[in-house]
Amino acid sequence: MSIVIAIDGPAAAGKGTLAKRLAEKYDLAKLDTGLLYRAVGFKVISHGGDPEDPKEAEATARALDPDELTNEALRTDAAAQAASKVSAIPGVRAALLDFQRNFAAHPPPLDDGTPAQGAVLDGRDIGTTVCPQAHVKIFINARTEVRAKRRFKELQYRGHKAIYARVLEDMMERDARDSGRSASPLAAADDACILDTSALDADQAFAKAVEFMSTKNLF
Ligand code: DC
After folding, report:
1. pTM for the full model?
2. Which of 5, 46, 123, 208 fits 136 for a cystine, CB–CB 3.0-4.6 Å?
3. Tens of pLDDT along 65-98?
């Protein structure tokens, strides 16, 4: 049986770090689904297009090549904003759904070539829409200012120019759009474990998630 773990939450809540650590601990393949939307949004704006134009965004999503997910430019705030815009378009979400579900059902082998025991996917709607049957669902959150500070530090660390006030403003705009859209909005599944990381570091958040995982008797 392939174990599926769904991690959802707003930007910079700690989804990526937690997903990586759970993947390492339980031998799971990992998919950062935000990268799919970033790749679509970034491609549209790179061609001078409008990320809110459904026709162009959907065509870009349908033609997406998973090899395009490693571009460092996808980490920028411009890519994040474009991702948030294209992700509100139902046709874009539909175009990316099969890829995500297929990854969960047939996870690729681990980097060392051994078979994965399952998959961990992080995003906004994994527990609610992409994998509603996931064995474990975690909704990770933190106060907006805490998340903006984390994102600001991350951007600086990666060598991108950043102004804190702008990062905070962008994050609030993105949160509102991701939660307010009608197509698969950011939301916690009813059966998700809610993890607030405002006062937790990455080790503490990981420990809480492992504790929750152990209640499920999956491994
Ligand atoms: O997780 P992230 O910051 O890389 O995501 C970028 C944007 O992509 C986010 O603002 C909303 C969208 N997204 C989504 O709508 N559904 C997902 N499963 C993942 C991301």
Report:
1. 0.95
2. 5
3. 988 899 999 988 899 999 999 999 999 999 999 9
